[in-house]
């Protein structure tokens, strides 16, 4: 079990690596707005528990294990930040700060429940899902993906109006392939081996994520 | 009903139901309109060892739970157990998707024969299906067929006559759904299928709907999914598991996918435009040729001999009107309607139509329609009648109304004859094109306004791309022939009646009286002599007749000598916009109802007169 600081460090190294940068001691410290000497002991503890490897005194990278842990925390952060902005209406920055505090103690069960709560279709057909949640890029409207990608459907908005979609197999968890995408955002998707053409307004009501 | 065995073909769209139907039934196929709907049902008889079996081809559907007319119709037939045996047709290349409907159908507990069609194509794709295992799982006989080659067709009838079992397959639903269905069944003493239906669509105001609604929202709260979503997901997952269990996939050689060129903006859209222009040119040239032929044939072999008979006045007038009506009907039916339907059947059967609809979706949106709307619009250039009949393909009433109005306004080939015969030959090509420009502008403006004011909701397009395949000539001809006879059935009576009336009016002098009354108005508003107005009136029978009558009434084919260029131009514009022909009105009434047909007719009349009057004011 890591301390909050250790978790924050892992999360930040992951973020730096995702940006394509090399995580140096200074960069990690500046992201956390903490002095180098404060974080060094925590970094060393992480190295000792095999989450971080350090080839030189200034370069700290995540191990496979460390990456896994960091991703779990990053997901908690994303889900919480999204919940706070989308459902509770907090400002994005404030939500992110709050999320940083909450993410360390929250259980996976609660996170999962929150996640599925937000993924569940909006019955009143309003709003546009996660448009404010920049850091939660996993699930997005179908039209945000490009031709040839294999995706998993995460949800269909207003299921009552789109019975036909459900009958054709466009349901949560179903793998689909974007076969064609025109510049007007009309798409052809392949579901269960059948090609189905969708006009833009329908395509924008389907959310999906990349298949991992 | 009759004591004979009745079977119904049921399945997804384009799985080969109609092909099987055609193979099994002989002559005497009857297309009937199911009461209260616009859905066509095909009924036919199968004679087998002196026993007659009635066979119905139900419309292709994806599910039994949708709101569409087809789904409601099929659901009703199954609920009332109107058929003894169901023949469920599955596409072997898309087994999983097809099983979804089969699982729903199985819940109705009607004896069933499963036909696994297109096994040859499945084989080509490397799909190997264990028929015995599938049959065991479903609990009904499974018959592999290749309908396109007529393979194994008799086995279907053998299986149907052998008292097939009620399918035993049943989807284990989520336990909350099962519990809700059980309690509904218990309380109201209904079957499981009815309970599930009530949960999926709690309709009506009876106790059952109320309880189902209550149970449904309870489930919805717990799962964050509607009962329909849960049930659909269970069925999909069950179909997947079943399909995986009975199929074995072998690697297959990659095949060239035509869709890489057909559905891309480039070269897809140029191809689409080329095909549309190709169809128009073909129908213009071939249609005009055959129309000419038919009109001349009737002229020489019917009208001239009839006139030579020199019958007494009234008989002559009525007889002549009848022949003219037949001439008008045949002149449209065979050259234009039939050729169009041939071409459209080819495009439909080849699977290209769905690609065209996909590509055209964007431009059709401006008019409040979806991609499918391109079909009637294109057809409209040839003849409004088949174009209006194809309006049925559109999903919502709103789209059907918009499309019908625009189609009525699009210059059909008959109106092109007027434009070319009057404007192009007496005034010039540029003027002829300007007539088109005026009409297109009005069509465009009307479309934009209609998309704003027409009542009804706009739904998006969800369209399955049917597989590309080479159409079968006999099926194409058969389809075209059936649609042609439908046209004759609708339009001929009206044509005959109106023509006879016009003939009698002319005989007793009403037409000249009309001309006397209309002349001052026609001269002051449109600047046209009275006889031109009478010619317009005859255009209602067949648009080219306006042109022909004008020449007859003017007493010369050289119209330029009796009318000024402006008068000719106004006449052509008014004639093109003015009231649709009788055949068109007949189809309008059938497709969108009397009220809208009258509104459309009045609108076009008003439009014609207003534009004509504006032209007169503007040009003088």
Keywords:
A: 212 residues, alpha+beta, SH3 type barrels, 6-stranded antiparallel sheet, two-stranded antiparallel sheet, B: 620 residues, alpha/beta, 3 domains, 26 helices, 10 strands, 65% helix, 8% strand, elongated, Metal-dependent transcriptional regulator (chain A), WH_DNA-bd_sf (chain A)
Explain this structure to me?
Chain A: Residues 140-210 form the Ferrous iron transporter FeoA-like domain. Chain A: This is Metal-dependent transcriptional regulator. Chain A: It comes from Methanocalculus taiwanensis. The complex is a heterodimer of chains A (212) and B (620). Chain A has a six-stranded antiparallel sheet with strand order 3-8-4-5-6-7. A two-stranded antiparallel ribbon of chain A has the order 1-2. Chain A has two domains: 1-130, Winged helix-like DNA-binding domain superfamily/Winged helix DNA-binding domain (Arc Repressor Mutant, subunit A, Orthogonal Bundle); 139-210, SH3 type barrels. In chain A, 43% of the residues lie in helices and 19% in strands. Chain A is elongated and about 60 Å long. Chain A has 212 residues and is α+β, with helices and mostly antiparallel strands. The longest helix of chain A has 24 residues, at 64-87. The two termini of chain A are 27 Å apart. In chain A, helix 4 (64-87) crosses helix 6. With 620 residues, chain B is an alpha/beta fold. Helices cover 65% and strands 8% of the residues of chain B. Chain B has 26 helices and ten strands. Chain B has helices at 17-24, 69-79, 95-106, 119-124, 131-138, 153-161, 175-188, 192-200, 207-223, 227-246, 259-262, 265-309, 313-350, 352-365, 374-382, 384-390, 397-409, 413-426, 429-453, 473-507, 510-526, 530-538, 543-554, 565-577, 582-592, 594-619, and strands spanning 6-11, 30-33, 40-48, 51-57, 85-91, 112-117, 127-129, 142-144, 247-249, 462-464. In chain B, the strands form two sheets. Chain B has a seven-stranded mixed sheet, with helices on both faces. In chain B, strands 7-9 form a two-stranded antiparallel ribbon. In chain B, helix 3 (95-106) links the parallel strand 5 and strand 6 (112-117). In chain B, helix 3 (95-106) packs across helix 10 (227-246) and helix 7 packs antiparallel against helix 9 (207-223). The longest helix of chain B has 45 residues, at 265-309. Chain B starts with 5 loop residues before the first strand and ends with a helix. The chains are: A alpha+beta (212), B alpha/beta (620). The interface between A and B is large, with 38 and 38 residues. Strand 7 (194-198) of chain A pairs antiparallel with strand 10 of chain B, so a sheet runs across the interface.
């Amino acid at each position: 079990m890591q301390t909050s600081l250790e978790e924050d460090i892992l999360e930040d190294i992951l973020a730096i690596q995702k940006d394509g940068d090399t995580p140096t001691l200074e960069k990690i410290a500046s992201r956390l707005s903490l002095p180098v000497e404060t974080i060094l002991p925590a970094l060393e503890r992480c190295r000792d528990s095999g989450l971080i490897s350090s080839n030189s005194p200034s370069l700290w990278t995540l191990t496979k294990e460390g990456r896994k842990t960091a991703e779990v925390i990053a997901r908690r952060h994303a889900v919480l930040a999204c919940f706070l902005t989308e459902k509770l209406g907090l400002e994005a920055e404030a939500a992110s700060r709050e999320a940083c505090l909450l993410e360390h103690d929250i259980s996976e069960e609660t996170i999962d429940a929150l996640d599925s709560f937000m993924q569940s279709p909006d019955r009143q057909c309003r709003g546009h899902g996660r448009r404010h949640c920049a850091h939660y890029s996993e699930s997005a409207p179908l039209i945000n993906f490009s031709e040839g990608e294999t995706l998993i459907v995460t949800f269909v908005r207003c299921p009552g109006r789109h019975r036909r979609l459900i009958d054709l197999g466009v349901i949560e968890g179903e793998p689909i392939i974007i076969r064609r995408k025109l510049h007007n955002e009309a798409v052809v998707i392949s579901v269960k081996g059948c090609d189905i053409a969708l006009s833009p307004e329908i395509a924008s009501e389907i959310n999906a994520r990349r298949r991992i | 009903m009759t004591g004979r065995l009745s079977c119904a073909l049921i399945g997804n769209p384009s799985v080969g139901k109609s092909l099987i139907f055609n193979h099994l039934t002989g002559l005497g196929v009857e297309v009937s309109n199911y009461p209260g709907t616009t859905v066509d049902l095909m009924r036919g008889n199968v004679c087998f060892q002196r026993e007659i079996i009635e066979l119905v081809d139900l419309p292709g559907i994806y599910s039994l739970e949708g709101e569409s007319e087809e789904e409601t119709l099929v659901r009703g037939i199954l609920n009332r157990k109107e058929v003894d045996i169901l023949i469920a047709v599955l596409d072997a290349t898309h087994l999983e998707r097809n099983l979804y409907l089969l699982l729903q159908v199985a819940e109705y507990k009607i004896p069933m024969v499963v036909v696994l069609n297109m096994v040859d194509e499945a084989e080509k794709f490397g799909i190997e299906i264990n028929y015995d295992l599938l049959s065991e799982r479903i609990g009904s006989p499974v018959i592999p067929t290749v309908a396109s080659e007529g393979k194994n067709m008799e086995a279907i009838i053998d299986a149907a006559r052998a008292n097939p079992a009620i399918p035993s397959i049943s989807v284990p639903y989520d336990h909350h759904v099962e519990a809700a269905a059980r309690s509904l069944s218990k309380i109201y003493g209904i079957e499981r299928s009815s309970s599930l239906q009530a949960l999926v669509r709690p309709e009506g105001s009876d106790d059952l709907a109320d309880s189902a609604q209550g149970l449904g929202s309870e489930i919805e709260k717990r799962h964050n999914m509607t009962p329909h979503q849960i049930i659909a997901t269970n069925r999909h997952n069950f179909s997947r598991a079943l399909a995986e269990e009975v199929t074995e996939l072998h690697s297959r050689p990659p095949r060239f996918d035509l869709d890489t060129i057909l559905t891309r903006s480039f070269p897809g859209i140029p191809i689409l435009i080329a095909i549309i222009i190709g169809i128009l040119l073909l129908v213009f040239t071939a249609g005009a040729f055959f129309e000419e032929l038919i009109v001349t044939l009737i002229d020489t072999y019917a009208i001239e001999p009839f006139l030579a008979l020199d019958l007494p006045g009234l008989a002559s007038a009525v007889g002549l009107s009848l022949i003219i009506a037949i001439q008008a009907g045949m002149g449209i039916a065979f050259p234009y309607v039939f050729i169009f339907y041939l071409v459209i059947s080819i495009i439909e059967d080849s699977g290209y139509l769905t690609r065209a609809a996909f590509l055209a979706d964007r431009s059709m949106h401006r008019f409040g329609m979806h991609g499918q709307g391109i079909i009637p619009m294109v057809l409209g250039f040839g003849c409004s009648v088949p174009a209006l009949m194809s309006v049925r393909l559109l999903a919502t009433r709103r789209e059907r109304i918009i499309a019908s109005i625009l189609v009525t306004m699009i210059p059909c080939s008959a109106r092109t004859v007027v434009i070319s015969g009057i404007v192009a030959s007496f005034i010039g090509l540029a003027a002829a094109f300007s007539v088109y420009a005026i009409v297109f502008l009005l069509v465009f403006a009307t479309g934009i306004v209609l998309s704003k004011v027409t009542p009804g909701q706009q739904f998006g397009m969800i369209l399955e791309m049917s597989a590309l395949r080479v159409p079968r000539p006999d099926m194409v001809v058969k389809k075209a022939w059936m649609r042609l006879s439908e046209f004759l059935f609708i339009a001929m009576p009206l044509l005959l009646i109106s023509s006879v009336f016009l003939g009698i009016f002319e005989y007793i002098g009403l037409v000249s009286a009309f001309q006397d009354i209309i002349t001052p108005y026609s001269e002051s508003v449109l600047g046209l002599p009275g006889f031109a107005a009478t010619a317009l009136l005859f255009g209602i029978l067949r648009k080219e007749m306006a042109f022909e009558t004008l020449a007859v009434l003017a007493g010369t084919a050289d119209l330029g000598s009796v009318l000024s260029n402006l008068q000719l131009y106004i006449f052509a514009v008014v004639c093109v916009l003015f009231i649709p022909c009788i055949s068109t009105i007949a189809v309008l009434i059938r497709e969108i109802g009397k009220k809208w047909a009258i509104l459309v007719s009045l609108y076009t009349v008003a439009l014609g007169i207003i534009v004509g009057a504006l032209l007169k004011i503007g040009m003088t």
